[in-house]
Amino acid sequence: ILLILSYFGVLILISYFTGKTSGNDAFFKGNKQSPWFVVAFGMIGASLSGVTFISVPGWIEASQFSYMQVVLGYIVGYLVIGTVLLPLYYKLNLTSIYTYLEERFGNYSYKTGASFFLISRVVGASFRLFLVANVLQVILFDDIGIAFWQTVIITVLLIWLYTFKSGIKTIVWTDTLQTLFMLIAVGVTIYFVSGELGLDSGNILGFILDSDLSKTFFFDDFKSSNYFWKQFISGAFIAIVMTGLDQDMMQKNLTCKTLKDAQKNMFWFTIVLTVVNFIFLCLGLLLTVYAAQIGIDAHKDDLFPILAKNHLGIGVFVFFLIGLIAAAYSSADSALTALTTSFSIDILDIEKKLGPEAQIAKRKQIHVLFSIVLILVIVSFKYLIKDESVIAKLFVFAGYTYGPLLGLYAFGLFTKWQVKDKVVPVIAILSPVLSYIISVNSSKWFGFEFGFFILILNGLLTFLGLILIRRKQH
After folding, report:
1. Domain assignment present for 138
2. Is residue 460 in a domain?
């Protein structure tokens, strides 16, 4: 408990120093003063989240290093973000990236894009925090008599405390610290596990590369979900959509002083994130081998927590907790800020409808509102929807909301057609529903697993739907 309180104490201290200007320009844009290298490093933690911290190491047993195929696809996606989307956002001087949809198509398209982001982010951020809170509950808080709902309230309250004044301006710096803590935790764990396996720094990489578990490329079965081209292309689109079309991730980029700085940020972020994902997979391989060697029955999401708590000593356990908290909250704090930004700018139009003081007051109210929403959704996952497979499906379905964004932006950027703006919400709802139906039945109907590829189908259906409702040119 002292460790966690000390950790948040540091974050609140950072918020004190960065929060001396608490206007909306600081909250939404960081006064456009963020150093690009700080943004790049901090985005690592926000991209990975607590789910990655727990789940990626647990994938090795079943999937080997196939996830690297997706990561390599990310590189292409980030290239598109840096060369196509960032110039667009800076040219239009956007606070919310969804404002582009209003300028390109109209108000209904704009509200639809923002609403889909809000739904996806509420479900996604809540799910990520739920998973991490669950792990912390089992390995720590149950033992000291703190109930799950209390854990959640305290967690979200602490995030609110260090973000409420300056939002993204604070988060750029706190995420950098949290990314550092997360990477230290991974490094310490690798050091101890490799020691237990009798490896030293000179032969760890060789051991990993020689293992059957490190198989990375899969070209054998195009119907399989881990087929190379399927994962590589999906990775590119996942990066474009879940970073480039995501207010949460782009808001950090837009705090850089210039487009050139933002592009440098994306370039270095891409390199570092690729390396970090590889390190996570290496950690997973070492943990998997170690668990098998000592006869521990720990798989998937249980692998890292069980070994850290029960088999690798108190030192690793402490670093595991720090890394887990850092990974979870570097994702959650920026999500809370992005939700506040998007709802304030996109849904309530506060910049158009309110004066400066009223804007700040309204933004603070929205920030509190979304803090409460996150608490309620997370607690509902625990107490109302007790079947975790249902929760996982909810999270997957939230991911479907990115498909319409992909279709809308692709249509806007690569065609000159206008659309019947009022019909766009219908297309945006039908596309993910159809995609979901196809995905669930694809093995039976086509003998084909979409996997991550479903995002592309979703975007394509939206694109085709927009073609159908395009306005005739006069």
Report:
1. yes
2. no
**325 belongs to a structural domain:** yes
Tokens in use for 65? 């290093």
CA distance 210 to 393: 36
pLDDT per position as a tens digit, 155-211: 899 889 889 888 888 999 998 998 999 999 999 999 999 999 999 888 999 999 999
Bridge-partner residues for 419, per DSSP? Answer: 470
The rounded distance, in Å, linking the Cα atoms of 304 and 308 is 6
Q: How far is CA 416 from the centre of its chain?
A: 31
Name residues whose C-beta falls within 8 Å of residue 165's C-beta, 6 or more positions apart in sequence: 15, 19, 22, 27
> Quick one: tokens of 84?
């196509």
* Separation of alpha carbons 26 and 226, rounded Å: 43
Angle at 127 between CA 126 and CA 130, to 5 degrees: 85
Q: Structurally, how many domains does the chain consist of?
A: 1
Task: Give the pLDDT of residue 383.
Answer: 81
Residue 427 lies in a domain: no
| Under-70 pLDDT residues of the chain | 1, 21-22, 386-399, 451-452, 473-474
- What's residue 391's pLDDT? 53
Beta bridge partners of 470: 419
**Start-to-end CA span in the chain (Å):** 67
Q: How far apart are CA 189 and CA 5, in angstroms?
A: 22
List the domain range (segments joined by +) for residue 52: 2-385
- The pLDDT of residue 473 is 65
Give the span between the Cα atoms of 62 and 380, in whole angstroms: 31
Which of helix, strand or coil describes residue 355? coil
**Torsion angle in degrees (nearest 10) through CA of 454, 460, 465, 468:** -150
Domain containing residue 214: CATH number: 1.20.1730.10
The predicted model scores a pTM of 0.88
> How many Å apart are CA 11 and CA 327, to the nearest integer?
14
Q: What phi and psi values does residue 192 have, to the nearest 5 degrees?
A: -70, -40
From CA 367, how far away is CA 341, in angstroms rounded?
A: 9
Cα gap 240→75, rounded to integer Å: 10
Within 8 A by CB and 6+ apart from 347, the residues are 111, 114, 115, 118
8 Å CB contact between 319 and 93: no
Contacts of 393 (CB under 8 A, 6+ apart): none
To the nearest 10 degrees (0 to 180), the angle between helices 2-18 and 313-342 is 40
Kindly state the tokens that stand for 164.
């409420």
